[in-house]
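Hi C.,

You asked whether I'd gotten around to modeling the 115-residue construct. I have! Everything is below, sequence then structure, no commentary in between.
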Amino acid sequence: ILAMKQWSAADWDAMYSDLPSRQSKLPVADRTAITTTDTEERVLSPSSLQPALDELMGRFGGGRCFVRPSGTEDVVRVYAEAETQEAADELALLSAQATWKLAGGVGSMPLATTA
């Protein structure tokens, strides 16, 4: 593809820049209650969670988020990125709160992101 477009590796690399991001984890009663697509970019169940995440992403410039069950702990991994660190932190928190509400979070609803 690079040769067809007459791009160098540097041209290709210049197309991408990292956005500020936040990763956290959320304790849940049963991590297997959350299923995702093979690429882990979209939640399949519970069915109400992905639309909630989509709505949250729309609030933030460059906002992207996804959640996936941990392979080793009864937690859900929450990933978020946005144009600023403050926005990424807020998107991660709101995503964790939506997941807590819709996917069986345990303990108190998160009020801050935790690594």
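If it helps when you're writing up: The radius of gyration is 16 Å.

Thanks,
B.
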